[in-house]
Specification:
- The protein has 18 helices and 20 strands.
- By secondary structure, the chain is α/β, with parallel strands linked by helices.
- The strands form seven sheets. Strands 12-13-16-11-17 form a five-stranded parallel β-sheet, with helices on both faces. It has a four-stranded mixed β-sheet with strand order 7-6-5-8.
- The longest helix has 25 residues.
- The chain is elongated, with a radius of gyration of 38 Å.
């Protein structure tokens, strides 16, 4: 269409398509007929006023029910109702359509994310939630209709599955976890620094280790890759060890506390309970023992999966993203526990009596900002470490992002050795065996001597002030030898000599003959004392 530039000039020629040209021909080939501006005005006035299209109301799926009702009339007009059961797949389809594919599950435990995460442990909880979500539920109890328990069981079996549910982020996110929280941007570090400043680290490096503990509860590493943080103090009681662990737990959204005499099966059951499934911090508080050794806990710390009994379900599992904290005075640990520990030292504070309330209020008011700061720390470039321990993944992902990672790594190793009382005990045992052999006139630096099992048990009990039987003593010494804790002792593999250990001096000739006369020398020693 060609319009004259003088709009309103009624006599100016205007080219308009001939009648029917627009409807019946493509625009490039349409035949144009000269018309006037008046013709254009008339054409515009003849067009209907445009009205916006009314969007159709969304069509909701059919109601949640386990049957349909068919109504028919007889010749007299009387109505007859017939209940037609729906198959299970149709019932589940209606539930998922009306709820946008909820509920979902971890193993066989159903959960919803509706004003926070809730677990649907029984069919009554499921149908109570459905009633609130979709309104009236038309449920029939006739032959052929599926029951509520059957629907509950089938949803537990077939709903969309996750490995775990999280109420706070991981950095990086863990595949297969459902995050009931918004994605978070990196913080500037101010609130994290302000929180750490409220604690009393014993040395500057302990400040970094407190930061590492906080970063660990947000770190998205695989299960069983987190060390245990042992909080202690050279100042004894009242140094704030428990409060530090508790405040870190508040940042992580809660804490699960245990006692060291609690059976490991109960600990697993509690960690698998609905209340604890979203918790990331576990605490053994105020341990009182001369040597903390707990093989089942040591295994649990490094296990990739926590497996045990879950109420209403049976066997339950969760990825082991738990960070353990222990508090005690004068840490003395078994070797296995020491190797799993990062020792944090705090000192007795000089602070106001309302410190706890103010610190908790600070965490609650700024929790999201603190988490954002921790996420930011975990997104920074990591330093390159020269060596790694058994916690290599954690060291590379968390420790390497501290201000002084190499110093932190060195102090961790140093403190692990300092609290390892089994290392001290092994050295004490070996020195005691050396003294006994020297008292029998053996050249312990260059001779090999067979020590029978009965004598091994007796010397072990004297050295450690214990009362082990021969078999138990053999197991203890054998384990220490296997671990390389007793370099001068090895198990005897020659049955002709009898069971026992062989002492081997530092400068023993490889072709030296093993001395087999220990019992005779002991007998002579006893006789000479009479």
């Amino acid at each position: 269409m060609l319009l004259d530039s003088s709009v309103g000039g009624g006599s100016a020629p205007i080219l308009l398509p001939a009648a029917g040209a627009i409807a019946n021909a493509d625009p490039p080939t349409a035949k144009l007929t000269p018309r006037t501006y008046a013709d254009l005005e008339a054409l515009a006035e003849s067009c209907p006023i445009w009205q916006p299209t009314q969007s159709a109301a969304p069509v909701l799926p059919e109601e949640v029910t386990n049957a349909t009702v068919e109504i028919s009339e007889d010749e007299q007009g009387a109505e007859t109702k017939k209940i037609v059961p729906l198959v299970m797949s149709e019932v589940l389809s209606r539930i998922r359509e009306r709820t946008k594919n909820w509920p979902r599950r971890v193993d066989q435990s159903l959960f919803i994310d509706d004003h926070g995460v809730s677990w649907l442990e029984k069919s009554a909880a499921l149908f109570g939630w459905l009633q609130s979500r979709v309104g009236k539920i038309d449920w029939h109890k006739v032959i052929g209709c599926v029951g509520r328990e059957e629907v509950f069981a089938e949803l537990r079996r077939t709903s969309q599955r996750y490995q775990a549910v999280e109420e706070m982020p991981h950095e990086p996110p863990i595949a297969g976890h459902y995050y009931a929280c918004q994605a978070i941007e990196s913080g500037d570090g101010d609130k994290l620094a302000e929180l750490i400043n409220r604690f009393q680290p014993a040395a500057p490096i302990d400040r970094d280790l407190i930061q590492a503990a906080l970063m660990t509860v947000v770190w998205g590493g695989h299960g069983g890759a987190r060390p245990c943080f042992v909080i202690t103090s050279d100042d004894g009681r009242g140094a704030g060890k428990s409060k530090l662990a508790e405040m870190i737990g508040h940042v992580a959204g809660g804490i699960v506390s245990f006692s060291n005499n609690e059976p490991i099966s109960e600990i697993k059951a509690r960690l698998l309970s609905p209340e604890a499934l979203t918790k990331r911090v576990a605490l053994l508080d105020n341990l009182k023992t001369l040597k903390f050794s707990w093989s089942e806990l040591e295994a649990l710390i490094t296990a990739p999966i926590i497996s045990g009994k879950r109420m209403y379900v049976g066997e339950g599992q969760r990825p082991n993203t738990i960070t353990w904290f222990c508090t005690l005075n004068g840490a003395s640990l078994s070797t296995d526990m020491a190797q799993r520990a990062v020792i944090i030292k705090v000192k007795r504070p000089t602070r106001a009596g309302n410190w706890e309330e103010e610190t908790l209020r600070f965490i609650l008011d700024h929790r999201q900002a603190i988490i954002a700061d921790l996420v930011g720390c975990l997104r920074t470039d990591a330093a390159t470490l020269a060596q790694f321990s058994r916690w290599a993944t954690w060291e590379k992902s968390v420790l390497a992002r501290l201000p002084e990672p190499a110093d932190a790594q060195a102090i961790i190793a140093e403190r692990q050795g300092a609290v390892d009382v089994e290392a001290d005990e092994a050295e004490l045992i070996q020195d005691y065996f050396r003294q006994q052999l020297e008292a029998l006139n053996y050249a312990t630096d260059r001779e090999e001597v067979l020590i029978p099992s009965a004598t091994v048990a007796r010397w072990l009990n004297w050295a450690t002030n214990d009362n082990h039987k021969v078999i138990a003593a053999g197991r203890i010494i054998g384990q220490l030898c296997t671990e390389g804790r007793l370099p001068r002792l090895r198990q005897n593999r020659t049955n002709a000599w009898g069971k026992g250990l062989i002492w081997s001096g530092e400068h023993t000739d490889v072709e030296a003959t093993v001395c087999l006369d220990l019992q005779e020398r002991i007998a002579k020693q006893i006789e000479s004392r009479k």
